[in-house]
Amino acid sequence: MPDVRLASPQGKWILFTTILGSSMAMLDSTVVNVALPRIGRDLGANLAALQWTVNAYMVTLAGLILLGGSLGDRYGRRKIFLLGVVWFAAASLLCGMAPNPGILIAARALQGIGGALLTPGSLALIQASFHPDDRSRAVGLWSGFGGIGAAVGPFLGGWLVAGPGWRWVFLLNVPLALLCVPVAVRHVPESSAGKHAGRFDVLGATLGALALALLTYALIEARSGSLGVTLTAVAGVAAAVAFVHVERHRPDPMLPPDIFASRQFTAVNLVTLCVYAAFGGFFFLTALQLQVVAGYSPLAAGTALLPTTALMLLFSARSGALADRTGPRLPLTVGPLLCAAAMLLMLRVGPDADYLTDVLPALLVMGAGMVTLVAPLTATVLASVDTARAGLASGINNAAARAAGLVAVAALPLLAGMGPEAYRSPTAFDAAFDRAMPILAGTLLLGSAVAFALVRRPAPGCRRPECRTHGNVTSPPLEGDRRGG
């Protein structure tokens, strides 16, 4: 049984290491959007390349995050965590040195692999190291400080872009890794479940990531209408079908199909797909709108986005407690409605937009909506399956959210009629942004309708979240399986 106490020096070092490692990936999920206009200008990238700068990372992270957790269980959680940190730092160095968009996109895909190793690994180390009496508090601190990292991301990204340059958005990860690795080697104990780890589905993970990559490529390049795009879309569908077939017939699949036998679990994941598709599209386009159209500097644009994550950090725990009393149906119905209203309020953000009267009201309503729905969503995911599968359910929900975000970033410019050079023209981008926001609002309305129609109060005595404080806007909290080992 793990026996490290949180108050001990070793406990503090473990917590520091896991927070530092996971914050690298958390920062990257929010910081890059602010840097996109400068990246495009310096590297001569078109809109499709900027979409891939975001999505290459999300494809490998979403496709491999379930596999990353099982690798740690099998081969050693500290070992895989350290591999993820080193891998992530090396890929970040390559991003920071990229001479052209192609190298940057490839490096971002490699970054996603590192993120898939270190993100679940950091939580697994806490679960496996701390005494049961301290584990919930340790997870809460890990989640809370990770949320602070996500909140600081846009501000830090804007400061770096406006100061030393966008390359430091990525290069900053290198010294963080150099600090994290020796501390982990010295203070973090190794643990594993050995050959009894369970899920270890490389074929399923590969097919899932391949399907996401092919379909994302087809959506981003669809405006060309070429035969190659059509063939890529067909190949993506074929990979998705093969993924489902493999998962249905493997004895120990990464994504067991029978978990979706729970109507509640299926419903909450449908809500997740809708709301996180909207969030992904919103934060991608808003960071561009504030700079390209409203004329904000990178620092001002990054700072402008702080209220949303600040509200989540301050009130997510209270929202979860309220949902425990009211049940999840109401917050999962009302939360998306508030976020949809925020999308429509963003239509006021145009040339020379005033922050206090045009931008801030929309972001405050957006934050209120996210506060209302994120904590109840996570709690309902955990409550909708057997306690033994809660960690798996959380991982699936987290991966679904990331996949929804990357599909939105791929599809939304197409649906809104953004041309390859739209972000270079304030007039063209503003017109497309005004078409995109109602699409996102409609996606949120669909999520609200699904929640109202299908989500019900869970049975008493079910699993409750340990991550009560949360600030990440790209995915719901990741919960562990509490096995230790």
From TrEMBL:
Transmembrane segments: 12-36, 48-68, 80-99, 105-126, 138-162, 168-188, 200-220, 226-246, 267-290, 296-317, 329-347, 359-383, 395-416, 436-455
Transferase in keyword set: no
Cellular-component GO terms for this entry: plasma membrane
Membrane topology qualifier: Multi-pass membrane protein
Pfam families in the record: MFS_1
Stretches assigned to the Major facilitator superfamily (MFS) profile domain: 14-459
SUPFAM superfamilies: MFS general substrate transporter (SSF103473)
Main location: membrane
InterPro entries linked: EmrB-like (IPR004638), MFS (IPR011701), MFS_dom (IPR020846), MFS_trans_sf (IPR036259)
Gene3D superfamilies (alphabetical): MFS general substrate transporter like domains, Multidrug resistance protein D
Stretches for region Disordered: 463-485
Subcellular location per the Swiss-Prot or TrEMBL entry: Cell membrane
Key word Repeat present: no
GO biological process: response to antibiotic
Organism, as annotated: Streptomyces filipinensis
GO molecular function, one term: transmembrane transporter activity
NCBIfam families, alphabetized: efflux_EmrB
Keyword annotations of the record: Antibiotic resistance, Cell membrane, Membrane, Transmembrane, Transmembrane helix, Transport
Name of the molecule in the record: MFS transporter
